[in-house]
Specification:
Largest sheet: 5 strands, mixed
Number of strands: 11
Strand content: 5-15%
Distance between the termini: 64 Å
Radius of gyration: 26 Å
Strand order of the largest sheet: 6-5-7-9-8
Helix content: 55-70%
């Protein structure tokens, strides 16, 4: 088999494994925060009322499609939204389409990881690193649901590196301009990509200073910077309108990030996040996977431990005195990887708001690269230095690789089986699909009010703009000054229906409480039309309406619910 086919085979393996159970867990709110605004551009007026990005950041894009938001929120751009517009036009916005779209982006990262590693290190290191990445459960699950988001950041980083290595060898300015565009798009996609830029720049400058000075001619500098400005231009425009808004959001005011105690606590917390990711269990809690469900991998795969050993070995390689006058390619590559990870991690520790797994996930695939380089290139160096006829180091590396691959596949299979049992829990439950199915049967102009965070985004996306007027008044209802007027407006329309999150899944319970109290005081009665359950029987969502006491149906008009566990609520036909 030709080596040139390996990146395609590894990418196909990733897509095959990652596309299992595309509908599970259920569609999550953050997963579609950048998808919903694309519906306005894709479907026009029929998608009115969907979430449309950050207010005040819009620009004209397509005729009769409203404004396109430059930013989704202050630190999150709309690159994913822009890329999804033609996808929505061609295929719609079902969960399957959305997740195949993000997995295709992640597949670009897998492909580029092999290309970069093969050119910068060796084909053996590329094979090991890319195989481990393609079967990494945290990478698979978190790019499938793209909770972060992370898929575009990882793709931009690895594509830029793959093209950069080609430029390093050819010195064609067009390639460096392409690198600049990709990195600029990465920064526009999300502001924490600045950590990646700092890490790559610091490592390259410190490890390859002489080569860099020779390569960066005025023409190459102009090409690289020009490309970066082109890629980041929406980000630049927004932060000129509102100076440094993307950097201010997410960093709480008054936090003394430079306090040694705070930094120590942050370091410990970020290290634990990385361990969770490398173990493959970082998403289990949110989606409802218990340790018992994935035995014997209740504590994840051994990859975190293997990475720790590889890290110690790499530090020894990087710091111990070298026999040669100039370090070998292997040693310099190891130093480059260590500096990249070190600078990235320092940025994460020094950023007060970077306390989620999705922040640390952007260090991927460097842990896999380090393990791949040490297993392949490090053992090859040991064999050469030891002049062994039987490459014992290579055999040991092969055993470690087989153990990692087997444990990754077993954990993925156990997690898939667990998800099929639960369907996801809480705000990740696949019960949201039942709500969307029911709303498709309602008149398109009947108002629907989403009474908690994220419900509107998910339903607008699943309904593909076919049900207009899905509002989320909970934002006003949690404000005591606005709650009364908002509730009166909602109750004025007797055709309105409300989608309510139940205890255990609700993010802002005071909104629905205020609505119920106001309605009850004015003689309205709540009618629950349907309760939606998780696969384990736990109620998750309800669809209901308010009726004035004078409009209550006669006994002959009332149908009683027969859903298991539903406590006799009446259903208005």
């Amino acid at each position: 088999m030709a080596l040139g086919s390996l990146p395609f085979l590894l990418t196909a393996l990733f897509l095959l494994v990652a596309s299992r159970d595309l509908l599970l867990p259920g569609l999550y709110a953050d997963e579609v925060i950048q998808i919903a605004p694309a519906l306005l551009q894709a479907f026009g007026a029929r998608a009115n009322g969907v979430h449309n990005g950050l207010p005040g950041s819009g620009i004209p894009l397509l005729p009769r499609r409203g404004e396109f938001p430059l930013m989704t929120i202050e630190y999150l751009g709309s690159l994913k939204t822009l890329l999804f517009i033609p996808v929505a036009r061609l295929f719609g916005s079902s969960t399957t389409v959305i997740r195949l779209f993000t997995l295709a982006i992640a597949a670009c990262a897998v492909f580029a990881t092999y290309r970069f590693t093969a050119r910068a290190f060796s084909s053996g290191a590329a094979l090991v690193a890319t195989l481990l990445l393609a079967l990494d459960q945290s990478f698979i699950l978190r790019t499938k649901v793209d909770w972060g988001p992370n898929a575009l950041a990882l793709a931009c980083k690895m594509l830029a590196l793959a093209v950069f290595v080609r430029w390093w060898r050819s010195r064609h300015a067009a390639l460096l301009a392409t690198v600049g565009v990709i990195l600029g798009l990465g920064l526009y996609n999300k502001t924490d990509f600045a950590w990646v830029l700092l890490a790559l720049a610091a490592a390259t400058i410190l490890v390859y200073p002489r080569e860099l000075r020779r390569a960066l001619t005025p023409g190459n500098v102009a090409a690289g910077l020009g490309g970066f400005v082109v890629g980041a231009i929406p980000f630049i425009i927004y932060n000129l309108r509102d100076p440094l808004a993307s950097f201010r959001r997410g960093n709480p005011e008054g936090v003394r990030w430079y306090d040694p105690a705070i930094l120590r606590a942050a370091l410990g917390q970020r290290v634990q996040l990385l361990i969770d990711l490398l173990d493959g269990r970082s998403l289990d809690g949110p989606i409802g996977i218990t340790p018992a469900a994935v035995r014997p991998f209740s504590f994840g795969t051994p990859f975190a431990g293997i990475f720790a050993v590889a890290l110690l070995a790499a530090l020894a390689v990087a710091l111990l005195p070298q026999r040669r006058a100039s370090p070998s390619r292997f040693v310099r590559g190891v130093r480059w990887l260590l500096i990249c990870m070190g600078v990235f991690f320092a940025c994460a520790v020094a950023t007060p708001g970077a306390s989620g797994h999705h922040h640390i996930l952007n260090i991927y695939p460097f842990p896999h690269l380090l393990v791949g380089v040490m297993l392949a290139d490090g053992t090859a160096a040991l064999n050469r230095n030891g002049r062994q006829r039987l490459p014992l180091a290579s055999l040991g590396a092969g055993v470690i690789l087989l153990a990692l691959v087997a444990s990754n596949l077993a954990l993925l299979d156990n997690t898939s089986r667990a998800l099929q049992q639960t369907g996801g829990t809480g705000r990740w439950s696949d019960a949201i699909y039942g709500v969307a199915d029911d709303l498709r049967q309602r008149p398109a102009d009947a108002p629907i009010y989403a009474m908690d965070w994220g419900i509107q985004w998910r339903l607008s996306t699943l309904l593909e703009g076919r049900v207009s007027g899905i509002e989320e008044p909970w934002v006003a209802l949690i404000n005591p000054a606005a709650a009364s007027d908002t509730t009166a407006r909602l109750l004025a329309n007797p055709r309105a229906e409300y989608i309510v999150a139940l205890p255990g899944t609700v993010a802002f319970p005071t909104a629905w409480q205020a609505m119920q109290e106001y309605a009850t005081q004015r003689g309205y009665r709540l009618e629950i039309l349907r309760t939606y359950y998780q696969r384990d029987g736990v109620p998750t969502l309800q669809r209901c309406r308010f009726l004035p006491a004078t409009a209550m149906p006669a006994a002959s008009q009332v149908q009683h619910h027969t859903l298991p566990g539903d406590p006799g609520y009446i259903l208005i036909p």
